[in-house]
Amino acid sequence: MIGALAALWMWTAPAVAPQEPPAPAAHIAAADSALAAFGPLLGKVWRGASVTDPAVIAEITFERTAGGRAIRSVHSVNGGAYTGDTLITFDRESGHLISFYATNGGFYTTGNLKVLGPGQFEFQQVVHGLDGVTEVRAQTTLTDGVYRIRSQHLINGEWIETGGFDYRPVP
Q1: CA angle, 106 then 37 then 44, to 5°
Q2: Which residues pair with 84 in a beta bridge?
Q3: pLDDT tens for each residue of 131-147
Q4: How far apart are CA 113 and CA 152, in angstroms?
Q5: Within 13 Å of residue 170, how many CA atoms lie on the same side as its CB?
């Protein structure tokens, strides 16, 4: 019986596709250079208040993941009332950093980001699953130990300034 099951599995199992060769050294160097801009943010808990409502407190962390080939960011607002996880990695086809942001709010975003300097980025995201909101743009800066995020949302066809947060490392 076991032999018959093994034979059935062998017959029905999908063929394993050949693995892609490792990324060329130039792509690895480009990825490492782009992801290095997250260096000043890594390994810390950043806490900040909303610039539009100081009662809204958020925390964000950054860490390397996937063998150092990606950044994982975890974002939490008001002790977990709203949460989101972001994965950022280098796309060697486009030569840009790309991201995927999943939330407990039932929507997610996909997009890319441009490195402007250490801790400084421009995000351009497409929103999936949030009625009326189709895109998000955000700019981040890291100056004098303060990580600032400012964002705009494309809501019903109009770009709206939606605020942001000023984060500081938690001692």
Answers
A1: 65
A2: 75, 103
A3: 999 999 999 999 999 99
A4: 15
A5: 12
